[in-house]
Amino acid sequence: MVVIGGDAAGLSAAAQARRLRPASELEIVVLEQGPDASYSACGIPYWVGGLVSDRNRLIARTPAEFAARDITVRTGTRAEEIDLSAGTVTVTGGERLTYGHLVVATGGRPAHPDVPGLDAAGVHGVHRLADGADIRAAIAAGAKRAVVLGGGYIGLEMAEVLKTRGLEVTVVLADPVPMAQLDTDMGERVCKAMGDMGFDMQTGQPVREIEVDGDGVVQAVRTDAGSYPCDLVVLGLGMGPEVTLAREAGLDIGVTGAIDVRRNQQSRSHPEIFAAGDCSQTFHRITGEPAHIALGTHANKQGRIAGSVIGGRPARFAGVLGTAVTKVGDLEVGRTGLCTTQAEDNGYDYRTETIEGTTRAGYYPGAAEIAVKLLSERGSGLLLGAQVVGGPGSGKRIDVLATAIWAGMTAEELAGSDLSYAPPFSPTYDPVVVAARVASRIEQG
Amino acid sequence: MVVIGGDAAGLSAAAQARRLRPASELEIVVLEQGPDASYSACGIPYWVGGLVSDRNRLIARTPAEFAARDITVRTGTRAEEIDLSAGTVTVTGGERLTYGHLVVATGGRPAHPDVPGLDAAGVHGVHRLADGADIRAAIAAGAKRAVVLGGGYIGLEMAEVLKTRGLEVTVVLADPVPMAQLDTDMGERVCKAMGDMGFDMQTGQPVREIEVDGDGVVQAVRTDAGSYPCDLVVLGLGMGPEVTLAREAGLDIGVTGAIDVRRNQQSRSHPEIFAAGDCSQTFHRITGEPAHIALGTHANKQGRIAGSVIGGRPARFAGVLGTAVTKVGDLEVGRTGLCTTQAEDNGYDYRTETIEGTTRAGYYPGAAEIAVKLLSERGSGLLLGAQVVGGPGSGKRIDVLATAIWAGMTAEELAGSDLSYAPPFSPTYDPVVVAARVASRIEQG
């Protein structure tokens, strides 16, 4: 068994296959082009921010630990070519490995705008540990003003940590509000809160150019509306699938640009090959439509599915809701399921309700504001999507809504459910239940 | 419409009936024997602890606010007798009110041990705002050593706030561990953590006597194992139903000692009368068996059901899981569904899994330990119950499990679900998902 890519998906596939089949039956080799396997890309902002002191804490397991489980992880080893007919993978230097089972887990690559100056010194992604090291070095060297391009999770998290490190931070977005996965009204809450925190929010402005000085060092980010001086630019535009190797080998690429796979992670065009994680296409739990969401949790699970099937135990991936959570300062944001744009695109007859409440009993210290927005199907009352924006304690409430949507609950069923209550944790009716109640009451007429 | 009891259940019934029927059609009178309607008994510990500065903050709505919605709330008005055949309620002083619809919402009364000395000066319940005022006065007068009798939610919360107010606190329990609603292994975690915080935990010792001095003032609490000196005793033994009035009127009392009602809150013996809240019996969502759980959230919902039916809209209560959450210092505890004793008593073939994890990514500051215990049905994998004990961020995770159980999910379904992930909020796999995964993996063999 050869696995291309030594991060969440690839290593989960390897570990699960090993659980089911001993080393005497199955040899497992994982090829990782970078210097580290099994690192937490999601942790990079917090390492940059100084919340995590040691780079090594972002590394979940070392090759030696995998070796102890009879899994060979070869870091610094780049797969250059897959030959499907011969059943081989060629790595840099020409070595050719023969596989019985192949898992493609090549991950994602940071999206970037097609503008001049992107290769200037001082422009960084947030993908590899080396990116984090570069940004840390830039701060240590005295960077004062940063522009974050993009308002996705990583973008906002980077904005937060750069500010805590003392930089002035401008967030430049093509969209009218940050977090494209939120509805505009909820994104506006995030935008306003970030403005109040002192971020310079420049929305609705596609970037046109990264301005550089004579030495090729970044000086400013220019949009149609203005030019924002900076000595550091961070790309927070999200991740696309890395499929070069798969495409060249002849695997079918889906409509999302990721490798088209069946629900058991087998390539649709070449079922003998598996793909998992950020490089693979998946499907939306509610709509059944193809989806691509780069996230470690999905990568872990999809890898596990591939490893299970290779290990001889049938398994199928159950889909994604696009659940996500993030924080900026004390502001917490969560979302799951369909937003209004998705509901419209998919032809749902839906309604939305937004309620405002508090995270704790109103009289309990630390009770913070929270807004909960629910999308439900008109008539059936089926929950379709949810978004929360609020103070500490808001974000993880999205999990209740994600679970309810996963289970196919209606707003009325959620309104009747038995959630926990104590004054330090929620009002008598949790805001999630209040939202469901309002939605179901309106449904009842 | 006459409502006996002006707290969560009674006022929810009144409010919902008013929503559906205008004042021209239906007069609504709520009789409340105490001086305040609509107060938060759950907030009393935090008022005693000084976290809530103003008693009035515990009062959700005043009679004047209800009057503005055409609901008459008569505080200081005690219902003395219900005459079912005449359709009247007699209040203290002899006034007789005729009802077309009657809702009995007489609430609960604190359980207390049958031992000498219980009426001594210095022994307090935690039920009425007056109890809170008495305990505050005792602290202000210089109380130094408190004994809390009982290890339920209110008991532990009172122990916490008395300690923050500078008292030495001994918790005396008849049970081997606090929180009878938890399994012993999880209760032991709570017991140990509280011991580490400096509480004197005296478990497995039924109280035999409250020792008093010559002036009738409490001096100590005596068990078979010892005598614990104190100048303040707080009863935290839970709440039983207050059904005196209902029993005297002839309403059937159920096996739990509470008023037996149908799922629409009509008395089973006298369907023309409604009962809701802590005085009424309800049923367990999973087992279907009668249950009595005194909790404001259920009271609110049950009152709402009664008000709906009276208002002309059919409605049924959907049952309880016994979901609960509490905290002591940084320790958070949640539970839902069946514990092992309940699973056994109800004849389930079940298994349990307990996992230990962290509330955030291990490398993120503030990552705290959390233990999650799941009960699931052998074979089907249906989730039956869950318990969590851990640091900040643990408690509210019980809501995800309560929602999954409510929806009838299996451990495998929960393991596949799409919960939110970001390093400040959870490890890549939320501990709840890890527990579900372990349970489903074992189920798969």
Description of the structure:
2 copies of one chain form a homodimer. By secondary structure, chain A is α/β, with parallel strands linked by helices. Chain A has 3 domains: 2-108 and 240-310, FAD/NAD(P)-binding domain (3-Layer(bba) Sandwich), CATH 3.50.50; 123-235, FAD/NAD(P)-binding domain (3-Layer(bba) Sandwich), CATH 3.50.50; 331-444, Enolase-like, domain 1. In chain A, 26% of the residues lie in helices and 24% in strands. Chain A contains 12 helices and 25 strands. In chain A, the strands form 7 sheets. Chain A has a 5-stranded parallel sheet. Chain A has a 5-stranded parallel sheet with strand order 9-16-10-11-12. In chain A, strands 21-22-25-24-23 form a 5-stranded antiparallel sheet, sandwiched between helices. In chain A, strand 13 and strand 14 form a beta hairpin. In chain A, helix 1 packs parallel to helix 8 (296-310). The longest helix of chain A is centred in the last third of the chain and has 15 residues, at 296-310. The N and C termini of chain A lie far apart (59 Å). The relative contact order of chain A is 0.12. At the A-B interface, helix 8, strand 21, helix 10 and helix 11 of A face helix 8, strand 21, helix 10 and helix 11 of B.
Which secondary structure elements does this structure contain, and how are they paired or packed?
The structure is a homodimer of 445-residue chains.
Chain A: E1 2-4, H1 8-20, E2 29-31, H2 44-48, H3 63-67, E3 72-74, E4 79-83, E5 88-91, E6 96-98, E7 102-104, E8 108-110, E9 123-124, H4 129-140, E10 145-149, H5 153-164, E11 168-172, H6 184-197, E12 200-202, E13 207-212, E14 218-223, E15 227-229, E16 232-235, E17 239-241, H7 244-249, E18 273-275, E19 282-283, E20 290-291, H8 296-310, E21 324-328, E22 331-337, H9 340-345, E23 350-358, E24 369-377, E25 383-390, H10 398-406, H11 411-416, H12 431-444
Parallel strand pairs in A: 1-2, 1-7, 2-3, 7-18, 9-16, 10-11, 10-16, 11-12
Antiparallel strand pairs in A: 4-5, 5-6, 8-17, 13-14, 14-15, 19-20, 21-22, 22-25, 23-24, 24-25
